[in-house]
């Protein structure tokens, strides 16, 4: 898996991508800011959500068993999946048993996380994405780059060209209404033919066994109501204690996500209802690393996420590089704390470092996840892991380079003595004459070359502050 | 409030690279009638290590900082991010290691440690410093100053009271400049992309001087401006190069606030 710094340059060099992302995130930030600002109790809602999520994580085992009992009692069937392979095996087994070759899907990050579409394809089952942006991504053979707007990196001209080719509509224009109509006609047939639908879930209520999906386009409602069989894959952290908790989350989510006061479609269902909707409902509860995240009392806050994507939209790093550079299902600030914890040390160690710690994400998070604090916590854990040679080899920690470790050690040694620091200043002044031009340094080797690649570095002046202070005090006394 | 004994914390890179900021800070506080002390044993708060994940070193530097500044009446530093380290991250380190006695000491230190502009406006209740700086100036509110230690509009109030100064709003002011400590070296490409956008905003503002309360962010922006050829040459310390007369100058807030008619003055 390429690291974040290795993947970022390609994204940064893509001028079209930068423009698309800049325009989209700026628009959505303004909308979010307006509809959260108008709420007199916004902070109270955030605090309530934080507390509820904390309570769920503290007693997750109990709430999950309660949920299982309630769903089963309402006529649903609950499955437990330890990891991606188990989830895929359960779901493809159910689809195969139903005897169908095609399923319709509601946009779901969790199914992306386990690679469900690919697993189904390997069994000869075609999964049709029905969310417009997800459909675009599927047609283009790409990966999503955003929680909510998977095709945020594409503009409408790019989408028109894609539709012209894949839907055989050579005269299509880039008028958004015309593009949506083309997708609608294509999807309508799929909805009517489908016998099995697969969805994720935004929430599940332990008390009642109710499962909920929040969406904008109505494609979800089609999938959740028309087919004979519904299979829902849900991360175990999505459970909420009571039905009344929805009151908080259904206010926080749409305002944080799309900047709407209310999302157009909220579908809630409880087991099966004869004569109304699917006659068979399967809920697959997925762990896939979540219980490992739960072990860390601070890091577990990452499980509080409701996938609104406000942190992606506000993040200046995400705005520049987009979602693909993160090389993960969950990009952006929340992804940088969630992905490495879900997957364990190694391949995604660069993600917690892909942040300036500017703090904008924490300010907008509707459930008050302390993202910068957790980024720092994970950096600490990873560096600690990579400075122990045995653990480095055994677990493949890649957080810190050899050079960085020695530089930091040296710097730490110098700075723990004011005498050593003063000597280092004098040495630095001598050494810098090798690099200095008109008071500035244009190029440095090694680790520091990351700085001088695009910026000059100011040289050390002849006198430090403490030397000025000493001289002044000497003069006074 | 006059006659406070103020321990000046001059963070390591400020001490080494930006002595002028320290000199300005001393002048401002002394003019207000306070006694400034500079504990000579001080070095660094450990933020570089902490933010890069090197908590062992950060912990050592934290203990050192506490032994140097623990007895001070108030600690003032011309750097928001270093103050954030003391106020937010030191207690975090102590909580992590479960050292409750240490945590108490650090909490007590945290409430006595201030960034310069918040100290002036929120603690001393001073905005008017008798400064004179007849230039169009734009202000970048650094991330740690607004989102971590919440200095609010203290720097803007101080700038607003400077005689002759024309304060020009910075477009997208609250967006990060892309510095991020070792992020600037480890994620150089992304850091530079953010920096270029920030510099463009500064150019768009039409201001001739860019100021902030953190020399770290300013060092990054100045370095970029110089590479991009948009910085005033005359600012090069000790370079002996005459001013180009155009372009943008980069100055710490303290240096503007210490400026007087007819030169810096005593």
Descriptive labels:
heterodimer; A: 477 residues; alpha/beta; Rossmann fold; 6-stranded parallel β-sheet; 23 helices; 13 strands; 52% helix; 11% strand; globular; B: Rossmann fold; 2 domains; 4-stranded parallel β-sheet; 49% helix
Number of helices of chain B: 13
Quick one: how many beta strands of chain A? 13
- Nearest-angstrom radius of gyration of chain A? 26 Å
CATH class type of the largest domain in chain A: Alpha Beta
Based on secondary structure, the structural category of chain B is: alpha/beta
Mean pLDDT of chain A: 94
Number of helices of chain A: 23
Q: Span between N and C termini of chain A?
A: 63 Å
The secondary structure category of chain A is: alpha/beta
Q: What's the number of structural domains of chain A?
A: 3
Largest sheet of chain A, in brief, is:
6 strands, parallel
Task: Estimate the strand proportion of chain B.
Answer: 5-15%
Mean pLDDT of chain B: 93
Oligomer: heterodimer
List unreliable stretches of 5+ residues of chain A.
none
C-alpha geometry of chain A: globular
What's the CATH H-level superfamily name of the largest domain in chain A?
A: NagB/RpiA/CoA transferase-like
């Amino acid at each position: 898996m390429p690291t974040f710094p290795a993947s970022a340059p390609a994204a940064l060099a893509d001028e079209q991508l930068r423009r698309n992302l800049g325009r989209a995130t700026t628009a959505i930030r303004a909308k979010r800011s307006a509809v959260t600002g108008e709420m007199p109790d916004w902070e109270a809602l955030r605090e309530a959500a934080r507390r509820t999520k904390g309570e769920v994580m503290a007693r997750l085992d109990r709430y999950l068993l309660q949920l299982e009992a309630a769903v089963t009692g309402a006529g649903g069937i609950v499955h437990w999946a330890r990891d991606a392979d188990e989830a895929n095996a359960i779901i493809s087994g159910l689809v195969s048993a139903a005897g169908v070759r095609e399923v319709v899907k509601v946009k779901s990050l969790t199914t992306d996380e386990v690679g469900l579409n690919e697993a189904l394809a390997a069994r000869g089952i075609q999964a049709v994405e029905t969310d417009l942006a997800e459909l675009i991504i599927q047609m283009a053979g790409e990966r999503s780059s955003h929680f909510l707007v998977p095709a945020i990196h594409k503009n409408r001209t790019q989408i028109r060209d894609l539709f012209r080719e894949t839907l055989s509509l050579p005269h299509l224009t880039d008028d958004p209404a015309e593009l949506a109509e083309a997708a609608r006609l294509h999807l309508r047939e799929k909805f009517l033919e489908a016998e099995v639908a697969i969805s994720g879930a935004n929430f599940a209520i332990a008390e009642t066994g109710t499962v909920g999906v929040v969406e904008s386009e109505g494609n979800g409602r089609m999938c959740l109501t028309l087919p004979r069989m519904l299979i829902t894959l849900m991360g175990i952290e999505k459970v909420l204690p009571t039905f009344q908790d929805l009151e908080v989350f259904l206010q926080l989510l749409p305002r944080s996500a799309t900047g709407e006061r209310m999302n157009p479609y909220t579908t809630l269902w409880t087991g099966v209802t004869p004569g109304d909707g699917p006659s068979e409902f399967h809920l697959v509860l997925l762990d896939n690393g979540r219980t490992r995240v739960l072990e860390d009392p601070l890091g577990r806050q990452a499980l509080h996420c409701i996938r609104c994507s406000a942190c992606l939209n506000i993040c200046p790093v995400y705005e520049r590089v987009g979602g693909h550079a993160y090389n993960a299902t969950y990009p952006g600030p929340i992804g940088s704390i969630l992905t490495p914890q879900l997957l364990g040390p190694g391949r995604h160690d660069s993600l917690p470092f892909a942040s300036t710690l500017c703090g904008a994400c924490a300010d907008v998070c509707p459930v008050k996840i302390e993202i910068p604090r957790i980024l720092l916590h994970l950096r600490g854990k990873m560096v600690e892991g990579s400075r122990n040679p045995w653990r480095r080899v055994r677990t493949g920690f890649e957080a810190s380079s050899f050079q960085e470790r020695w530089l930091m050690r040296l710097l730490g040694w110098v700075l723990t003595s004011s005498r050593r620091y003063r000597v280092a200043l004098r040495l630095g002044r001598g050494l810098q004459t090798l690099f200095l031009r008109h008071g500035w340094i244009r190029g440095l080797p090694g680790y520091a070359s990351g700085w001088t690649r695009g910026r000059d570095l100011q040289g050390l002046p002849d006198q430090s502050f403490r030397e000025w202070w000493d001289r002044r005090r000497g003069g006074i006394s | 409030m006059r006659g406070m004994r103020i321990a000046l914390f001059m963070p390591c890179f400020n001490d080494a690279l930006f002595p002028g900021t320290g000199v300005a800070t001393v002048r401002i506080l002394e003019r207000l009638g306070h006694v400034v002390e500079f504990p000579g044993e001080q070095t660094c708060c450990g933020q570089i290590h902490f933010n890069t994940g090197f908590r062992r070193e950060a912990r050592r530097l934290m203990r050192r900082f506490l032994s140097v500044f623990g007895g001070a009446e108030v600690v003032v530093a011309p750097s928001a991010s270093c103050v954030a380290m003391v106020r937010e991250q030191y207690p975090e380190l102590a909580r992590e290691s479960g050292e409750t006695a240490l945590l108490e000491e650090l909490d007590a230190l945290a409430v006595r440690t201030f960034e310069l502009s918040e100290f002036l406006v929120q603690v001393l209740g001073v905005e008017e410093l008798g400064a004179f700086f007849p230039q169009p100036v734009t202000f970048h509110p650094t991330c740690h100053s607004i989102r971590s230690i919440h200095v609010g509009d203290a720097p803007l109030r101080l700038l607003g009271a400077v005689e002759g100064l024309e304060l020009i709003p910075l477009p997208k002011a609250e967006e990060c400049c892309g510095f991020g400590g070792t992020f600037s070296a480890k994620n150089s490409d992304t850091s530079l992309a953010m920096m270029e956008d920030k510099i463009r905003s500064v150019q768009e503002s039409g201001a001739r001087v860019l100021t902030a309360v953190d020399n770290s962010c300013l060092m990054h922006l100045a370095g970029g401006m110089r590479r991009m050829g948009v910085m005033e040459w005359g600012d090069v310390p000790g370079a002996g190069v005459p001013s180009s007369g155009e372009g943008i100058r980069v100055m710490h807030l303290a240096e503007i606030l210490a400026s007087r008619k007819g030169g810096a003055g005593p």
